[in-house]
């Protein structure tokens, strides 16, 4: 593929620690990345100092952020194959559950458990921070909540309005005048009454 100048488009350059770079992530994640220095570390004299991270610390932290904030897990080729086999087995189990075939379900369940144990072992060998499916689902749920957060979305679209204390007090007193608490109660308590014959 070429662009209109006849040259091939430039390939995206990957940095060695791309997950530590705020500019390389989506806007909803950028506030969660504050990781260029390490504090609470002692120097040769025993004084507590703040220093830049070493390459080993950057590598560890990059993998941690990739898994924790991005949901991006390292996978060896064997792990990919075994996870695909586990997905297929679980899919077959769900189909059998719909049909109500209890005998075949009871034969398939031990295979699923063995396959899942193999996947867990391979994830541990890949030095993943989050090994079980429950831990990974928790990360995906947290990422989904962060993307759906109204405050976070308002902040990244520049539609967040910031008031100082005096402006906020003025705004809240004006808003309170417009709200009738009785109307709110009646709206919540509206129930259709049965007509008496």
List keywords for this structure.
flat, single chain, 2 strands, mainly alpha, 56% helix
Structural description of this entry:
This protein has 197 residues and is mainly alpha-helical. The termini are far apart. The chain is built from eight helices and two strands. The relative contact order is 0.08. The protein has a domain of 52 residues. Helix 3 runs antiparallel to helix 4. A two-stranded antiparallel sheet has the order 1-2. The chain is 56% helix and 6% strand.
How are the SSEs ordered, and which strands pair?
Elements: H1 27-30, E1 37-42, E2 48-52, H2 55-68, H3 77-99, H4 102-125, H5 133-148, H6 150-156, H7 165-178, H8 181-189
Antiparallel strand pairs: 1-2
Helix pairs in contact: 3-4
Secondary structural class: mainly alpha
Read across the widest sheet, the strand sequence of neighbours is: 1-2
> How many helices in DSSP terms?
8
Report the C-alpha radius of gyration, rounded.
27 Å
Give the proportion of residues in helices: 55-70%
- Outline the biggest β-sheet: 2 strands, antiparallel
> Could you say which overall geometry the principal axes of the C-alpha atoms support?
flat
Strand content: 5-15%
What is the helix/strand order? HEEHHHHHHH
Strand runs, count: 2
Unreliable spans are: none
Measured between the Cα atoms of the first and last residue, the distance is 78 Å
Task: List the quaternary state of the chains.
Answer: single chain
